[in-house]
Write a structure and sequence with these properties.
Layout (H helix, E strand, L loop, with lengths): L7 H23 L1 H6 L8 H49 L3 E5 L5 E4 L1 H7 L7 H6 L10 H5 L4 E6 L6 E10 L5 E9 L1 H30 L1 H16 L6 H32 L4 E3 L1 E4 H15 L4 E6 L5 E4 L1 H17 L6 E9 L2 E8 L32 H11 L4 E6 L3 E9 L5 E3 L5
Parallel strand pairs: 8-10
Antiparallel strand pairs: 1-2, 1-5, 3-4, 4-5, 6-14, 7-9, 10-11, 11-13, 12-13
Helix pairs in contact: 1-3, 8-9, 9-12, 10-11, 11-12
Bound molecules: adenosine-5'-diphosphate.
């Protein structure tokens, strides 16, 4: 309570006692009551006056002493508090990690020096404006679960400074019982970049190894067959009858077709990676495309029952018909390759929100959960004891690239031993003609 350079409470106390002393002395000496009320004067009782003055002096001194002691203690406690606060502030400001506190309304209540140097001063009060330049709370915001008492930890990418942080959010109980969120941000941009680079190198290494083994193993056998049959045709031309010759020529054609498909897929994939594939997009009826592809597949794959299931009134969509046929062709061929003869393959399409959802389901061997994403990697094939097919692992990565060019998504749902469904979406509105960089 030091307002004017001295403690007001002590000053009031001293003034009180001085006033009381003056009143007692005045009362005794000037006999104020008898003058005021016109009563006979009473003689000055010097003994009583001395006692009262002494009493006032003792009580006054004691009170002032106690007040001073209390003041001293309060001052010491306050100094300790300031010291602790400054220590805490120094620690928080020396930290390389950003620390901030926000309230339930997303208002920033505190930031430390590291936040200041990474995100600048707090001009906008809301955390989503300050951290991400957004005008509304982030869609991924976890403040509710933090305010409910749980801690949250995840990677956070700042849209404001394009850096990646290891983010920890913890509930912070305030003195009034309310809860704020304490956020801690550790910049891990370089570490993440390194992890990403390593993953890319590993992937590149895997593709290189797969390409080598594919070329050395898978290409050799059709080439050996072609060479073998070609040698037989040249060396034993006269001894072979017409039907044998025809059989050999057909075998050569089959393996040459396989090789052509492989080279075409490889070329398409590298063009996709280089962003060289141009889509010829035009409004087209997906029903017509599906009917055509299914009819062709029924002739090509008589071993399976290929069915088409469509919902009523499907709108026309903007697609490159040849490329979408290529995707469907690949998925249907895979469905037949990886399921037993006589089983059903169902091709379906329906409109979901602003997208067309197309599915190819089979009752085949299925795909283990850990491979559901990897099957779309180039040259990725699931290792199995019994070799089901002689594929190169290019088909699905091509499908993913082509669907991505149409701004759609592709994924697979599967259960081992039961079957798989490959889904892909196509947006109902797509640009007319474009070249988008492909890839996974
Ligand atoms: P491949 O030429 O080897 O078939 P893909 O890229 O088309 O190459 O497929 C990659 C891998 O995904 C296949 O080797 C196979 O193991 C798995 N796969 C693809 N389609 C199916 C399916 N319908 N059922 C089970 N496994 C499948």
């Amino acid at each position: 309570m030091k307002k004017f350079g001295f403690d007001v409470r002590i000053a009031v106390c001293v003034a009180g006692f001085v006033l009381a002393g003056i009143l007692i002395v005045a009362d005794e000496i000037f006999d104020i009551p008898s003058r005021v009320f016109n009563t006979p004067p009473t003689p000055v009782n010097w003994m009583e006056l001395a006692t009262e003055t002494f009493f006032i002096l003792v009580v006054g001194s004691l009170t002032i002493f106690l007040l001073q002691q209390l003041n001293l203690r309060r001052k010491r406690a306050q100094e300790m508090l300031y010291l602790e606060r400054d220590k805490l502030a120094t620690i928080l400001n020396c930290m390389e990690d950003g620390i901030y506190i926000i309230n339930t309304k997303h208002d920033i209540e505190y930031i430390n020096q590291a936040m200041l140097s990474q995100f600048g001063p707090v001009k906008e009060r809301k955390c989503y404006q300050y951290l991400h330049n957004l005008e509304e709370p982030c869609p991924w915001c976890k403040i509710q679960s933090v305010l409910e008492g749980s801690s949250v930890r995840r990677d956070l990418y700042s849209l404001k400074n394009q850096r990646t942080y290891d983010y920890i959010g913890t509930p912070l109980k305030n003195s009034d019982g309310s809860i704020s969120k304490l956020g801690m941000l550790r910049d891990i941009t370089e570490r993440k970049q390194l992890e990403w680079d390593i993953a890319k190198l590993e992937e590149l290494d895997r593709v290189k190894r797969s390409l080598l083994s594919t070329v050395s193993h898978e290409l050799r056998s059709p080439l050996a067959t072609i060479r073998g049959y070609a040698s037989m045709l040249t060396d034993y031309r006269r001894k072979l009858n017409e039907s044998k010759k025809r059989e050999f020529v057909l075998a050569i054609k089959k393996d040459a077709d396989e090789l052509t498909d492989f080279v075409n897929d490889l070329l398409d994939l590298s063009r996709l990676e280089a962003g060289l594939i141009m889509l010829e997009v035009k409004p087209y009826s997906i029903v017509r495309v599906l009917k055509r592809v299914v009819a062709a597949a029924q002739i090509r794959l008589p071993s399976h029952q290929i069915l088409l299931k469509l919902t009523k009134r499907l709108p026309r969509i903007n697609i490159d018909v040849i490329r979408i046929q290529q995707v469907l062709h690949n998925l249907i061929d895979n469905a037949a390759t990886y399921s037993a003869e006589g089983t059903e393959i169902v091709v379906s399409a329906r409109k979901v929100d602003n997208e067309m959802l197309v599915g190819v389901s089979d009752q085949g061997i299925g795909i283990p959960a850990e491979d559901l994403e990897k099957v779309f990697y180039p040259m990725y094939r699931i290792e199995s004891k019994e070799k089901v097919s002689r594929g190169m692992g290019l088909g699905l990565s091509l499908c993913r690239g082509l669907v991505a060019l149409h701004e759609g998504r592709i994924w697979v749902e599967s259960e081992v031993g039961v079957g798989s469904t490959f889904w892909f979406t196509l947006p109902l509105e797509t640009a007319r003609s474009k070249s988008v960089k492909g890839g996974r």
